[in-house]
Design a protein that fits this description.
By secondary structure, the chain is of the alpha/beta class. The protein is built from nine helices and 14 strands. Helix 1 (11-24) packs across helix 7 and helix 3 packs across helix 4. Belongs to the glycosyltransferase 92 family. One of its GO terms (cellular component) is membrane.
Length: 328
């Protein structure tokens, strides 16, 4: 994954995504530092210290003649030319692949808003790979005689924000982005549109963001598209075609991971000081109780004094009335 968010703090999403990768069975995550927000850097440094075998951070430089400049240049250079960004991102994708092709059976290229989600009774990627080998190829693009495939494709489906709609899971804080966003567009994208893959390192030769560029064609067939009954690529962003936003449906497949995911994310939040410890929370609640109690006492005292003022007789008016009567 190429991380290039120098001005947007996505630490909550990064932690939730990394924890979900663990639960899905990823052995290792490699990040390429395209310049991160300071809080995200803090998260990554904590992972490097506590889980060095799971997370690796590698530097990134632009490879098409751009100068190796001070921070922020990369971000603006990538924004200025979309095609240039795509070409530059091919470098870390394949650098990661070549560094790990003899260490792992499968590799994937993802952003932190993308998750290949197993469906049904399967909850991990190792289980999903075994299943993918035996299920039919969606649209039957590869030969029925194939026994090996360079990649397994998973069709894309968008999970937009829908900020105007009420929360589906009211008992979770908004810091849980994926657990909160369980409304998606109704239709999946077609086979080749924004799909993501798990690539077999025995056969892949070069990777693109969404598919394999080259593979050993004598040894394996092209990629197989896994039917959406078994898995889908959940993409947590707005679709380019806005008409897809109409008529969303609830698809809470991720809630199968909710207890473990929530506990692990909150533990990391506390570890980093983004959430209070149980002791600090208890102290804060006690201070709040005492403050509320004091405010209630003051309010009751003011009310009692006001009541006494309202019912006190007006002696001046009474004397005036008596004097007038005496004169008559």
């Amino acid at each position: 994954m190429v991380n290039s968010h120098p001005y947007e703090d996505k630490l909550w999403r990064l932690i939730e995504w990394l924890k979900l990768m663990r639960l899905l069975g990823a052995s290792k995550v490699v990040l390429y530092d395209g310049q991160m927000h300071a809080n995200m850097t803090r998260v990554v440094k904590d992972y490097l210290a506590s889980s060095p075998g799971f997370l690796e951070l590698r530097p990134m430089s632009l490879g098409r003649g751009e100068p190796h400049a001070r921070p922020h240049f990369h971000h603006y250079a990538m924004l200025a030319d979309g095609f240039n960004r795509i070409l530059n991102e091919m470098i870390p994708y394949n650098d990661c692949f070549y560094r790990n092709m003899y260490k792992y059976d499968y590799v994937g290229v993802f952003d932190i808003d993308e998750v290949i989600m197993p469906l049904g009774n399967h909850t991990t990627w190792p289980e999903l790979v075994k299943l993918a080998r035996v299920v039919p190829d969606y649209e039957s693009r590869t030969s029925a005689d194939c026994t090996e495939w360079v990649s397994f494709f998973f069709r894309n489906v968008y999970y937009p924000r829908y900020p105007e709609r009420p929360k589906v899971y009211r008992n979770l804080s908004s810091s849980f982005y994926m657990l909160q966003h369980v409304e998606r567009v109704r239709e999946h994208c077609n086979r080749g549109a924004a799909a993501k893959c798990l690539h077999d390192t025995r056969f892949a030769v070069g990777l693109h963001n969404h598919f394999t560029f080259f593979h050993t064609e004598e040894s394996a067939c092209a990629g197989k598209s896994v039917p959406i009954e078994f898995a889908q690529m959940q993409h947590y962003r707005e679709p380019d075609t806005k008409s897809l936003l109409i008529d969303p449906i609830v698809d809470a497949s991720i809630w199968r991971f909710q207890p473990q995911l929530q506990a692990r994310v909150e533990e990391r939040f506390r570890r980093l000081g983004f959430l209070p410890t149980d002791q600090k929370l208890a102290e804060t609640l006690e201070k709040r109780r005492k403050r509320d109690e004091q405010q209630l006492k003051e309010a009751l005292g003011n009310l009692i004094r006001l009541k006494k003022t309202l019912i006190r007789p007006n002696r001046f008016k009474s004397l005036t009335y008596i004097s007038a009567s005496a004169g008559i």
